[in-house]
UniProtKB/TrEMBL annotation:
The chain crosses the membrane at residues 66-87. It comes from the Bacteria. The keyword Thylakoid does not apply. It is a multi-pass membrane protein. This is Caa(3)-type oxidase, subunit IV. The keyword Methyltransferase does not apply. It is found in: Cell membrane. One of its GO terms (cellular component) is plasma membrane. Keywords: Cell membrane, Membrane, Transmembrane, Transmembrane helix. InterPro entries: Cyt_c_oxidase_su4_prok.
Length: 88
């Protein structure tokens, strides 16, 4: 394990807990008896939040050039929006 990995361990742990909490939220929403449109909106919103966490922390996008961050965030927002609107 490198020195950077040891320094970043608390951050990785917090992000992992955040992703786990979002996954549990999505599982809870699946049993919440929501209408299909509302369930799709909630599930895809949770997926979008998880995508943000993954690209920022695990793909090191936080330290990438601004054009790359904007491209990836724009792509994630566009795909999420298209999927949300396809269920409404």
């Amino acid at each position: 394990m490198t020195m950077n990995a040891l320094r970043d361990f608390p951050t990785v742990w917090r992000v992992w807990l955040w992703l786990t909490a979002l996954t549990l939220l999505a599982a809870f929403l699946a049993d919440a008896h929501l209408t299909p449109g509302h369930l799709a909106l909630a599930a895809l919103s949770v997926a979008w939040l998880k995508g943000l966490a993954i690209v920022e922390h695990y793909m090191a996008l936080r330290h990438a050039p601004a054009w790359l961050r904007l491209t990836v965030h724009g792509w994630l927002a566009l795909v999420s929006a298209v999927l949300i609107f396809s269920f409404l």
